[in-house]
Amino acid sequence: MDADALLAGLRDLVKRGDFVAARTRADEALMRFPDRIEAVYAGAVVEAEVCRARHQARVLSLRRPEDLAHCEQCIVQMTAVIERGGYRHDHYNRGYCQVYLGFACASGESCTSRFSEAEADFSAGIVTHPDDSDYFGWRADMRELLGRKQEACADWRTAERLGAPVGGEVKRACGNSKP
Predict the structure, then answer these.
(1) 7 and 42 in contact (C-beta within 8 Å)?
(2) What is the mean pLDDT of residues 16-20?
(3) Residue 120: how many CB atoms within 10 A of its CB?
(4) Would you say residue 149 lies in a domain?
(5) 165: alpha, beta or left? (left if phi > 0; alpha if psi -120 to 50)
(6) Has residue 24 been placed in a domain?
(7) The CATH number of the domain where 29 resides is what?
(8) Global pTM?
(9) Which of 46, 79, 101, 117 has the greatest number of C-beta atoms within 10 Å?
(10) Contacts of 114 (CB under 8 A, 6+ apart)
(11) Buried b (16+ CB within 10 A) or exposed e, 164-173
(12) pLDDT at position 62, please?
């Protein structure tokens, strides 16, 4: 099986939520094609998707090291992708793993640094993908968490202009304020 077929099969496994099989396929891709950035990225995406699934299932709130490890591994692997020149939505994936770790931090621990790191990733993603509404939406969420409402509203407006649905809660929060 060539690299493209192996990676396409991996994407299908991730979409179906079969993370065990996806992890196996990603490991195989990395072993067989270590010089292909797509193989490194694929493994990082699997970790990102497990991190996201754990967060959405509220498992991360349990702060179990084995669950948080997926988010940490996503960050390490996406950093390797970025250091090799980047690929696709590397900053987006690393950023949302930072977000999930920020939400899972223990009480008394500073979550702000995770959210600031996520904001930096989303800002870097905007540089390479200026028409991607997801980057603006996620950065807006981070800016709101960091108490920077005016900047958050400007990003939400940009996300909406780029086609993202912006809910009534955001519109109520931002009102008619100018960015």
Answers:
(1) yes
(2) 82
(3) 16
(4) no
(5) beta
(6) yes
(7) 1.25.40
(8) 0.80
(9) 46
(10) 98, 99, 101, 102, 105
(11) eebeeebeee
(12) 54
